[in-house]
Amino acid sequence: MISVLVDILSWTSFIVGGFFLFVGSLGMVRLVDFWARLHAASIIDSAGVGLILLGMMLQGGVSLVTAKLALIVLFLFITGPTASHAVANAAFMSGSRPHDMVEDVTATVPPKPNKGKPNKGKPKKAKAASSAKSSNTAKASKTIRKKT
Amino acid sequence: MFSFISLLIFLCMAILMVRLFAGPTLYDRVLALNTFGSCTVLLIGTVGFLAGRPDFLDIALLYALINFVGTIAVLKFFRYRRLGDAVEDADSIMAPEPEEPAK
After folding, report:
1. I need a surface site. Which of A54, A65, A110, B61 has the fewest CB within 10 A?
2. How confident is the model at residue A98, as a pLDDT?
């Protein structure tokens, strides 16, 4: 009874893990650039390897084999993301960028120096708006539009 | 069961070989090599179960560690063009571009 249950569980994890392995390896071939392929590689490194080793642990039972498999899972889960990060960092430092990346220009350009007088333009605009309200003519509203 | 999963791992490794040989940049190849090593760890484990000798898992554990160290070593070699010995002008390589002094 229990052995059948363990078999079903390990078959399930083998099949799901094999699915992730297959999808990840297809993604390694099909995806467009290096930065997209990182996703496929991390699918294989985490989901595929983890589930297949889980199935092997279920087959191993409570023994030294399971302990060794647990050690392999531990090491792979520490070293896999570290190696992926190292590869991505090396690629980034070499100047590679995603092919459709939009650079945030406002983040890189430093703000213009205000010479210690922040919000210099705002009070004038407020004055103009108040004067337009008081005069209430079409000309004044047009000038305000130009200003803003 | 183990024959099925080892055949599937073989299939995935064969697909990964395409990226390993056709990768346009170095980093594609290093990434595919790292993933290929993970698949090799799985294959060693399943073949050990298939042969009825789970002692193969020691080899799989060793392979996982060597795979990681090898990936880092390849990346380090292609960045500094040398391994192990001290870099004489480490500052010129490591330091970022000097920024404009803020006025």
Report:
1. A110
2. 78
